[in-house]
Amino acid sequence: MTITLAKGQRVSLEKVAPGLSQVFVGLGWDVKSTDTGTDFDLDASIFLLNAHDKLVSESHLVFYNNPTSPDTNKSVQHLGDNLTGKGEGDDETIKISLNQVPSDIEKIAIAVTIHEAEKRNQNFGQVQNAFVRLVNEQTKEEAVRYELTEDYSIETALIMAELYRKDGEWRLNAVGSGYQGGLQALLDRYN
């Protein structure tokens, strides 16, 4: 059974899916019928953060050009870049082995940015049906889903959700925070 979160809600993964250790994070979206003359290329990124809410190192940003986390277990893996967002279901997915994430990683921020948004005159107000979901990799059952409902008409970067450790267990926070300035705005926030 899927738990659907609203913006700002938090849930313990242990309560939702006891023993959950292997997940994949699916992100999806549709482009409104607005024609900007070019395809929308949305990119999922994962920021592996320390106890001070800062990126541990440049290699702790997992995205299409750096598809695996630097730890020996490769606990976080980006599974490919969807350049158009066309089709049903997940547009981009990230595989996370929660029980293998190094202990110095306190938070995993899940973000989406619009590639070349300023140059293409694009923003998240032109995107609809955006969601992030956590799926138990072993059972293939969706555990948690968060659908964005706000109109982000000037934002070009979104922090969709955060996985974080609390009292020895992983929890999920439905964030839904928008930023102007694309990926650079998020890098500034986490560096």
From TrEMBL:
<dbReference type="InterPro" id="IPR003325">
    <property type="entry name" value="TerD"/>
</dbReference>
<dbReference type="InterPro" id="IPR051324">
    <property type="entry name" value="Stress/Tellurium_Resist"/>
</dbReference>
<feature type="domain" description="TerD">
    <location>
        <begin position="1"/>
        <end position="190"/>
    </location>
</feature>
<comment type="similarity">
    <text>Belongs to the CAPAB/TerDEXZ family.</text>
</comment>
<protein>
    <submittedName>
        <fullName>TerD family protein</fullName>
    </submittedName>
</protein>
<dbReference type="Pfam" id="PF02342">
    <property type="entry name" value="TerD"/>
</dbReference>
